[in-house]
Amino acid sequence: MLTSAVGNATRLSLESTVRLRSGATMPVIGYGVYQARGDDCKNGVKVALQCGYRHIDSAQAYHNETLVGAGVANSGVPRSKVFITTKFMPGHTVPTDDEVFDQLVKSTRRFTPNAPKPPEGHLDLLLIHAPRPNEEARAVHWKALQRAQKEGWARDIGVSNFGVKHLRALPEPLPAVNQIELHPWCQQRDIVRYCQEKGIVVQAYCPIVRADPKRLGDPVVVKIAEKHGKKAPQVLIRWSLQKGYVPLPKSVTPGRIAANIDVFDFELDAEDMAALDSLDEGSEGACSWNPVDSP
């Protein structure tokens, strides 16, 4: 597990990893591909890997799993060196575990179409994208993910957008990861606390608040950025890292892709961290879909 203490932040590097339940390791920063389409997606993944990212986060709902696979193949970086995540998107009814499993296999094959069977065709992490529609369905989804892991389609399994009540009701085993919206304005502290108590790695999506000019121009963020000679997004990503989260910044612009990973040559001090912590607006601070309070 990654230590979140600010005093240990200088140990972080581009090569830093967190250990998951399977014993496998996951890079501490990932490249997100939400809304990335066509050549923007393929080229974004290629550029990200060439810049040093080794962790790509996709999802069925992004409709770009095949594009991500193509970007990895074109990058020159061996697939074995890249950590790939995708997410199963639940519907509004309770499926059978066979139906969910079939969807998981289809997703896995999209990334590596020429290696459709495990172990060559495995993914590193499969997540349930949201806790909908109810507890019965979540149990079915989780059973299917466990089967995918047992049969070798996924090395680790986890969830996304799960609140504490969803995590508590989920059948064993505990998920390896919970991916939630996290940044200084939406800190979801109860979920983070529960995950850290249970050894569930916390991934942070929207770590740079979708580059919202209002947020990036917040005087607190601007002051800290100027202090360290960095850009506002870099400060926010660094905050996530020092919190012990695994941030997943997203951009399709090569310069920004590179800048978002240039966060290992400075450290936020205790005063910086406290100032950013003070910005929390609770659920009102979310900038995206945030279904952690779903039934």
From TrEMBL:
<feature type="binding site">
    <location>
        <position position="129"/>
    </location>
    <ligand>
        <name>substrate</name>
    </ligand>
</feature>
<protein>
    <recommendedName>
        <fullName>NADP-dependent oxidoreductase domain-containing protein</fullName>
    </recommendedName>
</protein>
<feature type="active site" description="Proton donor">
    <location>
        <position position="62"/>
    </location>
</feature>
<dbReference type="InterPro" id="IPR018170">
    <property type="entry name" value="Aldo/ket_reductase_CS"/>
</dbReference>
<dbReference type="InterPro" id="IPR036812">
    <property type="entry name" value="NAD(P)_OxRdtase_dom_sf"/>
</dbReference>
<keyword id="KW-0560">Oxidoreductase</keyword>
<feature type="domain" description="NADP-dependent oxidoreductase">
    <location>
        <begin position="41"/>
        <end position="281"/>
    </location>
</feature>
<dbReference type="Pfam" id="PF00248">
    <property type="entry name" value="Aldo_ket_red"/>
</dbReference>
<dbReference type="InterPro" id="IPR020471">
    <property type="entry name" value="AKR"/>
</dbReference>
<comment type="similarity">
    <text>Belongs to the aldo/keto reductase family.</text>
</comment>
<feature type="site" description="Lowers pKa of active site Tyr">
    <location>
        <position position="87"/>
    </location>
</feature>
<dbReference type="InterPro" id="IPR023210">
    <property type="entry name" value="NADP_OxRdtase_dom"/>
</dbReference>
<dbReference type="GO" id="GO:0016491">
    <property type="term" value="F:oxidoreductase activity"/>
</dbReference>
